[in-house]
Design a protein that fits this description.
alpha/beta; Rossmann fold; 3-stranded parallel sheet; globular
Length: 472
């Protein structure tokens, strides 16, 4: 029976779900892809299991390619794969991917070829124990059947360690047998080795977190970065964006909106994340003003005033005081600094605290007093927290030192984040790992573009050297 007709109809009726992954040096391409998807009304996939298109953003030949190949092998037909090396290719490459998905005959031939290839297709390939596969698993959940065989195999007095001298013995499907160790309660539990990144939605480009977990608690963590291509430029940099007519404050706000939308997506608030991406794209447009200011200020108030969001994030990932000031505190504290950067652009002339919870209403007399204070110079505590003070006469004359480029600042923050994350992740539940990482959002591109701006890496316990090649 010829099923090509019904299959073609189903393909046309289906909604595409692209998985967007980014290599170091691919931030500009990622933003272009996300903008095209937003304008087309297409929602991104959260992992390979629900994706039909793999969209790789950035240059080819990077350390991301091997991990992307493994994820591609796990995706089922119909599927398509495209690479967006420069932003101008975004719309064209996505159209090509859609056309490939609608080619029913080619999809059937590809599935037939894959079925006869060694190790191709089937559940066995999808069950391969690789970092990319583990990253697709939902935080805090079991992959199902990971260690049923291991438990049956380990009934000899619970001595499963090393499996009689074979700690690396593989089970069918490529699974690596787990070892056992004492957990924090003194129980002997399986120790699983999994990884987050680098091929993962809403994950910092070029970052890899290799974890050893017992149950759902992280026992050991190693954080590394992928090598960037030579001559990579920091996208979020005042100098790099100067040709677009954007002032530094606007670039900083756009970078904050990009980091914030990723955190909101990981926290399970996709609608707020979508508005954050729209704000980011609006701020990066070469227009003089910010269109939709009312909508964005309402969004800003809603995000900052969300008690549920603050409650769910409070106390996660407290950073030590020796870190740069923007990284200190817990996840809500770092998120608040992004909100402050955005507020400094959306409401630059606001001197009350209407953006900070709780919302405070002020009398006309107080408003007139604040206006007079603003003309004299801002008082400590006035204005949105974190907003840059107005330029003084000395700085306007060029006598004061200029602040470092945003890219250099982000490079220092990225190095500090990579160094401290192993310590912060140990003892956390898997569900909290991605939230903590998203709150730091280390910029690997800036780290590669400004190698002289950061001190030599000192590795936390178990932390690998930068650019150490991950397992996938």
């Amino acid at each position: 029976m010829d099923v090509t007709g019904p299959l073609r109809w189903l393909l046309r009726a289906s909604v595409p779900r692209p998985l967007v992954v980014t290599a170091p040096g691919g931030t500009a391409s990622r933003l272009a892809v996300e903008r095209v998807l937003r304008e087309s009304g297409v929602r991104r996939a959260l992992g390979p299991s629900e994706a039909d298109t793999l969209v790789e953003c950035g240059p080819a030949g990077t350390a991301l390619d091997e991990a992307a190949d493994r994820v591609w092998d796990q995706m089922s037909e119909p599927r398509a794969r495209v690479r967006v090396e420069v932003p101008a290719q975004a719309a064209t490459r996505l159209d090509e991917a859609r056309a490939a998905l609608l080619d029913a005959s080619e999809q059937r031939r590809a599935a037939a070829r894959r079925a006869v290839e060694p190790g191709g297709g089937g559940d066995q390939q999808g069950a391969e124990h690789t970092p990319a596969h583990d990253a697709d698993a939902e935080p805090g959940t079991d992959d199902g059947g990971d260690h049923a065989d291991a438990r049956e195999h380990g009934e000899h007095d619970g001595e499963h360690d090393g499996h009689h001298g074979h700690p690396d013995m593989e089970l069918p499907g490529g699974l690596v047998m787990a070892d056992r160790g004492d957990d924090r309660d003194g129980l002997r539990l399986d120790r699983l080795h999994i990884a987050f990144g680098p091929v993962q939605a809403d994950w910092p480009a070029g970052l890899v977190a290799e974890l050893t977990v017992q149950g759902d608690v992280v026992q050991d963590a190693r954080v590394s970065t992928l090598s960037a291509p030579p001559g990579v430029a920091a996208f979020w940099d005042h100098d790099a964006r100067a040709g677009h007519g954007l002032v530094p404050e606007r670039i900083r706000a756009a970078a904050a909106a990009d980091s914030l939308q990723r955190l909101l997506a990981v926290a399970g608030w996709p609608d707020a994340a979508a508005t954050g991406r729209l704000l980011r794209d609006t701020l990066l447009a070469p227009d003089a003003g910010v269109t939709g200011r009312v909508r964005f200020t309402r969004w800003l108030r809603r995000v900052r005033g969300s008690r549920l969001l603050r409650w769910s994030l409070r106390g996660l990932g407290p950073a030590p005081d020796e870190l740069p000031e923007r990284l200190r505190g817990d996840v809500p504290a770092r998120m608040a600094r992004w909100l402050d950067d955005i507020a400094a652009v959306l409401v630059p002339d606001t001197f009350d605290t209407f953006l900070a919870p709780p919302i405070q209403r002020r009398s006309p007399r107080r408003a007139r007093f604040s206006a007079r204070a603003g003309r004299r110079g801002r008082e400590p505590g006035d204005g949105a927290a974190g907003a840059a003070p107005p330029a003084t006469a000395a700085s306007a004359a060029g006598t004061a030192p200029e602040p470092p480029p945003l890219g250099r600042e982000r490079a220092v923050g990225a190095r500090a984040a990579v160094d401290v994350l192993p310590r912060l992740l140990v003892g956390q539940e898997l569900a909290a790992v991605r939230l903590i990482v998203a709150s730091f959002d280390p910029d690997v591109e800036a780290l590669a573009a400004y190698p002289a701006a950061v001190p030599p890496p000192h590795h936390a316990a178990g932390g690998p050297a930068e650019d150490e090649a991950p397992h996938g």
